[in-house]
Each structure stands twice: as C-alpha cells, then as structure tokens.
Design goal:
By secondary structure, this protein is α+β, with helices and mostly antiparallel strands. It has a single domain (3-126), classed as Nucleoside Triphosphate Pyrophosphohydrolase (Alpha-Beta Complex), CATH 3.90.79. The protein is 16% helix and 40% strand. It contains two helices and eight strands, in the order E-E-E-E-H-E-E-E-E-H. The chain has helices spanning 45-57, 119-126; strands at residues 3-13, 16-21, 32-33, 36-38, 60-66, 70-73, 78-90, 100-104. Strands 1, 2, 3, 4, 5, 6, 7 and 8 form an eight-stranded mixed β-sheet that branches. The longest helix has 13 residues, at 45-57. The chain is globular and about 40 Å long. The mean pLDDT is 97. The structure holds 8-OXO-guanosine-5'-triphosphate. 8-OXO-guanosine-5'-triphosphate is lined by residues 4, 6, 8, 26-28, 33-38, 79, 81, 115, 117-118. Its cofactor is Mg(2+).
C-alpha cells in the first residue's frame, strides 16, 4: 500500500497552539490536525512545512524543534507524519483549505477529535 510523507507544524500563536479542522470534502473529513501537507519531490522537510503553512494559512513560521515521526496505517493509505514545533512570525491568518481553527492551551488539545495519526504526536508534545 502507498505510503505518503507528510509534514505538520505545531504552531505557537499568541501563546496558544493552533489546530485546524479538515473540511467535509477532504480526506478524514472534520478531523482536527496540525496544518501541513505532502512533501514534494526533492523538497526538504522544513521547506515543505513552511510552504504548506504559507499556502494553507497565509502565515510565515519559524521552526523550533523536530518531534518523532509517526507511521500510521489508515484503511486506504499509510502515512509517515513528520511533526515540527514552530512559532508564528508574520502574516494575517486566513484559512485557505480548512473549515475552522482554534487556539488552545497545550493541556486542552486532547479535547478535539484528532486524525488518528496525530495521537502519538499529541502525546509526545503534551509531555514536553
Ligand atoms: N496536514 C496534515 N495531514 C495529516 C495530519 N494527520 C493526518 O493523518 N494527515 C493526513 O495526511 C494526508 C496528507 O495531507 P494533505 O493535507 O496534503 O492532504 P490533501 O488534503 O492534499 O489530500 P487529498 O488531496 O489527497 O485529500 C491527508 O490525507 C491527511 O488526512 C496532520 O496532522 N496534518
């Protein structure tokens, strides 16, 4: 089965963490995730995550730390999800693809209905 490599960013924004909700028409509809997307051919992980955040949210970020990648099997694809902690630098936040966003304290993140592959990331991040 196909494995896709996807980067995502846990972004500190105004002292909170930004989470975004997938739209009804995306894969994993209405699940919450950290924004990001698929790595393009020849692209570095960091270039990918910065590009995706600019495309999806219209903001610039600075990468602070890489967390542990997660390999997860969904029913129809396998994902290698590569997480980074980042901070907001500039730009006006605009959702280009997602249906909603929230800014939460670290200890509130678990309340959302996360994409399954994000759960180990959430666990590692909240324990930091
Ligand atoms: N960006 C992002 N994607 C995630 C996370 N967790 C997770 O399982 N994914 C999955 O990773 C896949 C790739 O992300 P993407 O944002 O490039 O996907 P996409 O909407 O372009 O996919 P599609 O066009 O095939 O529906 C999606 O199927 C998404 O469900 C996450 O935290 N962030």
């Amino acid at each position: 089965m196909k494995t896709i490599s996807v980067t995502c960013a846990i972004i500190y924004f105004e002292n909170k963490i930004l989470a975004v909700q997938r739209s009804e028409t995306m894969k994993l509809p209405l699940k919450w995730e950290f924004p990001g997307g698929k790595i393009e051919m020849g692209e570095s992980e960091i270039d990918c995550v910065k590009r995706e955040i600019l495309e999806e949210l219209n903001i610039h970020i600075k990468i602070k730390q890489k967390l542990t990648s997660v390999n997860h099997q969904y029913s129809d694809f396998r994902i290698n999800l590569i997480p980074f902690i980042a901070e907001y630098i500039s730009g006006e936040l605009k959702l280009k693809e997602h249906s909603a966003h929230v800014l939460l304290d670290k200890n509130e993140l678990y309340k959302l209905n996360w994409a399954e592959a994000d759960l180990p990331i959430l666990k590692e991040f909240t324990a930091l």
